[in-house]
From TrEMBL:
<keyword id="KW-0813">Transport</keyword>
<dbReference type="Pfam" id="PF00497">
    <property type="entry name" value="SBP_bac_3"/>
</dbReference>
<feature type="transmembrane region" description="Helical">
    <location>
        <begin position="348"/>
        <end position="371"/>
    </location>
</feature>
<dbReference type="InterPro" id="IPR043429">
    <property type="entry name" value="ArtM/GltK/GlnP/TcyL/YhdX-like"/>
</dbReference>
<feature type="transmembrane region" description="Helical">
    <location>
        <begin position="289"/>
        <end position="317"/>
    </location>
</feature>
<keyword id="KW-0812">Transmembrane</keyword>
<dbReference type="InterPro" id="IPR035906">
    <property type="entry name" value="MetI-like_sf"/>
</dbReference>
<keyword id="KW-0029">Amino-acid transport</keyword>
<keyword id="KW-0472">Membrane</keyword>
<comment type="similarity">
    <text>Belongs to the binding-protein-dependent transport system permease family. HisMQ subfamily.</text>
</comment>
<keyword id="KW-1003">Cell membrane</keyword>
<dbReference type="GO" id="GO:0043190">
    <property type="term" value="C:ATP-binding cassette (ABC) transporter complex"/>
</dbReference>
<dbReference type="InterPro" id="IPR010065">
    <property type="entry name" value="AA_ABC_transptr_permease_3TM"/>
</dbReference>
<feature type="transmembrane region" description="Helical">
    <location>
        <begin position="459"/>
        <end position="478"/>
    </location>
</feature>
<dbReference type="InterPro" id="IPR001638">
    <property type="entry name" value="Solute-binding_3/MltF_N"/>
</dbReference>
<protein>
    <recommendedName>
        <fullName>ABC transmembrane type-1 domain-containing protein</fullName>
    </recommendedName>
</protein>
<dbReference type="GO" id="GO:0006865">
    <property type="term" value="P:amino acid transport"/>
</dbReference>
Length: 491
């Protein structure tokens, strides 16, 4: 009996292996659920979070549906089917392409579908599903240069670009002799660099290159001619390390998609969305996107100004304190924050602290910008206080005022006149610096600018609109600050 059972189990394992499943068979899924923390977490909360960079048509991009921006494309369709087969809802988190793997490792997302190739380098930090699509590599050029370029061999000592952190970038670096290769985050920015003659060609996966060329008559696709390894033209789902059960389920969905021939259907649906995006590409048609971006930019700026001012005031008094511990803490904080880029601080707050606290992107953005601003505000306030003549303090002491009353009634009212202009400049700069939060998917003005570029295939017009909106915000604030500065001078 045991021998028969053993043979039966062996046959079942072989059967599932031939069906293309991974090393864990579906018969063992429920028994090993507890060994896959990612799968267990997904099932418990009832949704799976997809990480993607929606600027890579037809894989993933955005379109306007009922006045709202919606993620669409082949990868989005596959992600929806994965979620459906898992019996959970799908949540989509957009971020820059080169932040996706970090987001997966820090549990911000549960899987990545972003036209990502399962390269050996990436497999060191994440796992991949079975391949679900093979696209091939092409080069996008300006149509007017069609007679100059035939394949990669034509770009020797030329300028080419590819998406940062992508297989295409590595192929260009290794296989185009003498070429100057530039990495650019967004697909729309790659096209803009090409159209403005900053680069001579853009290396892209064939479907994406064809999508851009189909919607822009000034562009042309030529063959890449790259020597490709087994994974250089393949696309798979990226998963956290040690997620065997989730991998089995996703591979099962991928097999079903292949068996039913759904990929052509998904690509056709993506093509229809691409066509609808170019029906009306006027900037007035996208006013809601820009309005939403302005709203988020102002929200982040106001919150950061408030918390930054409180933090800066506290740090300034700590640095001026005679208490050596308080002084040392303030100095260390101020010097460290001023000595590191805001982008790094933002990524640390969102991804680093995300290992312990799952902060929403907007909250992480406000915290990072506030903490950064606090360091600069502290120095502005400290400089203003130190600018007051020591005789003012001595006069206040002769009147018998306490240290607290000296600062409150004598020093600060005078220091505020000196502080206000520099403080106003910091607040104005904050509106512009807050644009960095777009890299983690906060829908501020820069993020919306990228959406409009992706939707319309227009590179310059959305930038002009964003520039005008930023100018209106900063100019209006500068006039308000000048008004109060005048009042201080006449006080």
């Amino acid at each position: 009996m045991k021998a028969k059972l053993s043979i039966l189990i062996t046959m079942m394992v072989m059967l599932f292996g031939t069906l293309g499943f991974s090393q864990i068979s579906p018969a063992k899924i429920h028994a090993s659920d507890s060994q896959d923390s990612t799968y267990k977490r997904i099932k418990e909360r009832g949704y799976i979070t997809l990480g993607t960079s929606p600027d890579y048509a037809p894989y993933e991009f955005q379109t306007t549906q009922n006045g709202k921006s919606t993620d669409v494309g082949m990868d989005i369709s596959i992600a929806k089917k994965i979620a459906k087969d898992l019996g959970v809802k799908l949540k989509i988190k957009n971020m820059d392409f080169d932040s996706l793997l970090v987001g997966l490792q820090t549990h911000k997302v549960d899987m990545i579908l972003a036209g990502m190739n399962p390269s050996p380098a990436r497999e060191k930090s994440v796992d991949f599903s079975n391949v679900y699509y093979n696209g091939g590599q092409s080069i996008l050029i300006n149509k007017k240069d069609a007679g100059l370029y035939k394949d990669k061999s034509s770009f020797v000592n030329k300028k080419v670009a590819a998406q940062t952190g992508s297989i295409q970038y590595n192929l260009a670096k290794k296989q185009i002799s003498g070429a100057s290769v530039t990495g650019i985050e967004k697909g729309t920015d790659l096209i803009l660099a090409l159209q403005t003659n900053k680069v001579d060609g853009v290396v892209m996966e064939k479907p994406s290159a064809e999508a851009f060329a189909a919607n822009n008559p000034s562009l042309k696709v030529i063959k890449g001619g790259f020597k490709l390894s087994g994974t250089d033209s393949s696309t798979a789902v990226a998963l956290p390390k040690n997620s065997p059960v989730l991998k089995v389920h996703i591979n099962s969905t991928i097999k079903e998609i292949k068996d039913q021939g759904l990929i052509p259907q998904y690509l056709k649906e993506a093509g229809s969305h691409l066509k609808s995006n170019t029906v009306n590409t006027s900037m007035s048609h996208y006013w809601k996107f820009f309005a939403l971006g302005v709203g988020y930019t102002l929200l982040i700026s106001v919150c950061s100004v408030f918390f930054g001012f409180l933090t800066g005031t506290l740090l300034a008094f700590m640095r001026l304190s005679k208490n050596k511990i308080f002084h040392a803490i303030a100095v260390a904080y101020i010097e460290f924050v001023r000595g590191t880029p805001l982008m790094v601080q933002l990524m640390f707050v969102y991804f680093g602290l995300g290992l312990f606290v799952n902060l929403p992107a907007l909250t992480a953005g406000i915290i990072a910008v506030s903490l950064n601003s606090g360091a600069y505000v502290a120095e502005v306030i400290r400089g203003g206080i130190n600018s007051i003549d020591k005789g003012q303090t001595e006069a206040a002491q002769s009147l018998g005022l306490s240290s607290r009353d000296q600062m409150r009634f004598v020093i600060m009212p005078q220091a505020l006149k000196n502080i206000w202009p520099a403080l106003g400049n910091e607040f104005i700069s904050l509106i512009k610096e807050s644009s960095i939060v777009s890299i983690i998917g906060v829908t501020d003005l820069i993020y919306q600018l990228k959406i409009v570029q992706s939707d319309t295939y227009r590179g310059v017009a959305p930038i002009v609109v964003a520039m005008v909106l930023y100018f209106v915000m900063t100019f209006s604030l500068s006039k308000v600050l000048e008004h109060y500065e005048g009042k201080f001078n006449h006080a």
